[in-house]
Amino acid sequence: MSPPKNNKNKVHNFKLTFCLSLTLLILVSIVLDRINYNRVKDAHRLQILSEVSTYRAQLESILVSNIQLVRGLGVAVAAEPDLQQAQFEQIAGPLFKTSNELRNIGGAPDMIIQMTYPLKGNEKALGLNFLEAKNQRADAIRARDTNTIVMAGPLKLIQGDIALIARVPVYIPPENRFWGLLSVVLDINKVYKNSGILELESEYNVALQGRHGLGKKGEFFYGDQNITEQNPLEFTLSFQGGNWQLYVAPKIGWNPPNSAIWPLRSAIIIICGLLIWAFFFFLKMLNRQQQNEKMLEAMSDLAQIGAWSFNLDTKQVYWSDMTKKIFKYPLDTQPEWPNDLGYFKPGESREKIAKLIERAIKLGESYEVELEVINAEGKTIWVLAHGEVERRNGRSIRIFGSIQNIDTRKKIELENNQIALHNEILASLTVNKLILSGQLSQAKDVITQAICQAFDVKRASIWFFNDDKSQLNPFAIHSTLSSSDNSDPIWLRKNTKDFFNAIDHQAVFSAPDALNHPILKPLKAHYLDPLHIQSMLCVVIPGGSGALGVVCAEQCQSTKLWSRNEESFLIAVAALIGSLHSSQKRIETEEQLVTAKDAAVQAVEAKSEFLASMSHEIRTPMNGVLGMLNIIKQTQLNQQQEHHIELAQSSAQSLLNIINDILDFSKIEAGKLNIENVQFNLPRLLGEVVESFALKVEQNKTKLILDATQITVSEIISDPNRLRQILNNLLGNAVKFTLNGEIIVTARVEETTDGSFLQCSVIDTGIGIKPEKQNSLFDSFTQADASTTRQFGGTGLGLAIVKQLCELMNGEVSVTSMVDEGSTFSFSIQIQPRLSKEQDLPSHLIKNKHILIIDECTLNANTAHKQLNVWGAKVKCINDYSQVTEHLNNSEVKLSAILVDYYFFEKARQAHITTLKNFINLHGCKLVIMAPMSYSQESSKLGMKVDCMIFKPLTPSDLFDSLTNDKFIEQQQRQAQLQNKLTKAPITDSTEPQLLLVEDNKINQVVASALLKQAGVSFDIAENGLDAIVKLNAKQGKPYKLILMDCQMPEMDGYQATKAIREGDAGKCNQNITIIALTANAMQGDKEKCLAAGMNDYLSKPLDLAALQPKLEQWLGTQ
Questions:
Q1: Residues ≥6 apart with Cβ < 8 Å to 858
Q2: 842-973 — its CATH code?
Q3: How far is 581 from 438, CA to CA, in rounded Å?
Q4: What pTM did the predictor assign?
Q5: Alpha carbon of 472 to those of 162, 446, 449, 463, 528: distances in Å?
Q6: Angle, helices 188-195/3-79, rounded to nearest 10 degrees
Q7: Torsion angle, alpha carbons of 608, 613, 619, 620, to 10
Q8: CB neighbours of 628 closer than 8 A, spacing ≥ 6?
Q9: pLDDT tens, 770-800?
Q10: CATH class of domain segment(s) 303-405
Q11: DSSP structure class, residue 990
């Protein structure tokens, strides 16, 4: 029988024996448990019997003792048969001190109760005749006739309670005459309590049988009569007058407590459990042993370890079957004694084993070594040989040991060593300084040397294609052999077509025997033979646009079989070469780009310098032109001359606007335009921008409407100047291209996940834009078509600047348009809301007020209606003047205000005008006139008192003030008077010069002088910075209050003069004098440059009174 089958039977026998033993043990355990259970159960019943007997004795004792007390009372009554209630109480009273169970005692001479104790509460019992009471007569007669105590109850008393009644007959000696009965009432509940019956019920079911002392014949009067089914303990209670049966059963049944039966059961379970665990543990160990034996056999086969021995005395050889398998030797025979070491590979392996065997025989040394052996098929394999020596009497008699086939592991190990070498070389290449430089021309020698080191070859080379890939040119060659061959190393496609086709279609070309390879035959004569190359491995160098060339490893003087690892290494090197080639090209391109960038920067700087110079050079004469035109305009001119001056001013201003557009675009293009973030009133800015175009749209007979009803915030943070510039450009275009039409400006604030944005649209009914022109509309120097430029003028930069400004402010601009129908330009910019409109304007002043709007312009009336509705007013609009009289005559509400279009008084019939005047006079409502911006009081045709006047286009602030501020007109008049005073009256009353004008240009001196005189300021003039310092020093006693300083001047410019003044060269009293810069430059940074030089403020040329006046008011007014 085989060992596996024996082992299987052995395990089966073990299991069968254990099962039988375990079954016997369980049966014995069950019998022992049953015997123990019955024993414990009987002991438990005896324990309960002992415990309950105590309560039974207590109950019986209480009943007997109380009856004995009453019998003593009967003796006392018999001794004195004629006693009354008082005497009865004296005799019966002491009994209650002795017994707690007595409820009352009654004396019934001649069977009628005449005495009782205690009397209180028992009065109803007096007079009771036992012979007449049906339920008590029989017991009374039986007690009398038998002269024995009769126990009745428990039963319900006349008083209503349940009690036990004992009737005791009393006979008077010596004639033994019947006196009557003593009725003793015991409180049954106290009997139960004092005897412990109630306490016993906490753990036991209790029942009493034998009402009226009848024992088992009587009824159950306490507990459940079904207790007899619980196998209860039964006790008989005997007393004079009868007996009772007491039944007691545990509530939890008669099962013994777990603490009495489970110790033995636990011991049995633990013993059985330990036996089962021990058996399974034994089986597990047995199974593990068998598995280990199988594993050892399998491991021996898997590890291919065989045994061998050589007997040096008998010349016998023993090889195990595995040893024979390793050497591919027949299994049915043993090898003969070897005459040499032919089993081992010639060379290093054979020499090494020969030395080890020699030392083992002579010195008895054991050995373990990895060697290459040759099997019977002639193949070389790696083995691990282990040898031991058996010595006897100092002489080696046997060599034995093991041999393991490690061919696969050893080859993997050698391959891993090769991979590690390759990785190490690749790692060293990646950190090489020459390679990190990105210059292939500098790193080529390092790469070819690394290939030779990795492959242990004598030669490596790198070849690159020419431009048309018709030849491969040598780029780098490294060789450890000296060669005197001077052959041409260039490989031509036409001579080696097969080789070129091979590298065109495959990344790797391997030729272990290069001299006999058909593809390399054209290279044999002039390349392979002269250089003694016998093996080649070539890999294509990859590039972005295809193969760049090849890198080759070449074995000289011997052949070499190229491995996959060597191919992978050379592929990695080829990729590195391709990367370095691309890097070198990129570096060369970057150098070219840097050169081009430097040239572009120089060009930009030159352009900026040119623009700055041109700005200064153009603005300087423009200052003179505009200034002189303003001076001429102040003189007496006829109508034709005044018209010519206005045309000249308009042309000059247009030229200045063009210059400003070009400068702004240059700033944006150079990325030097800064966006400010300041707080300002958005509705007020919108109103100012729209009002600035009012006169122009009137000339074009166009209606201009501002709809700001959706503005939910008043104060915002953004760049007001750039917002104004965007609106001016878009609104200016709309006004320019719209005649006899309408222009609507809408604005709203939107909240998005990216923040708050101002959305504005400029909608016009002008000439429109062709669809094909809309895409390029925002490009620089672009207009819809050439005819537009000829008809309307412009540089074509306005919309490009708008687009750039919107993008700088995190927004965008778009256009929709149809030819001859109009255009809509919409833009958005990011803002930061600060103050809501509700917080800014007290709209409660208008809320619920009734307001009437009379305007034939539906668009204007509807916009005012929407705005007033936002503020909570109740508004009615009349667009047909003929309905005014009817509406006013039928009006049932009290109007707070009436807004009337100015042209109502020109176009409406006189009857309607009269009705309006009478209505206002009668009801006293406020009259607000909506006048055109060109309105003048001299040409007014109103002919009636006006409470307030606002100008079209309506702005929210004007509309609100006109309705809420009763003094709005007075404020407007005062403002106009103040403005007139500022422009005509001198700012200072002093005749002493207050201002020093520093200007070298004579024309600019004339212009500035005229403006200062117009502003009413006295002044002196200095020709340059040096002259200014002289004049400042000369007026130390009465110093100037303000300096207007030109920046570009000969001898000493404005920057140098400011620095000298601040350093005290013009006297200590002038160190902090206010200096306002005058410059014709308007490029980015000019203002900052002036302020950095120490100046206080900045004005750009050309000067005009509108810009100069506020500066004079600001700086001279504060002083």
A1: 879
A2: 3.40.50.2300
A3: 8
A4: 0.44
A5: 134, 21, 21, 6, 16
A6: 130
A7: 160
A8: 1003, 1006, 1007
A9: 888 877 787 765 544 444 443 444 455 678 8
A10: alpha beta
A11: -
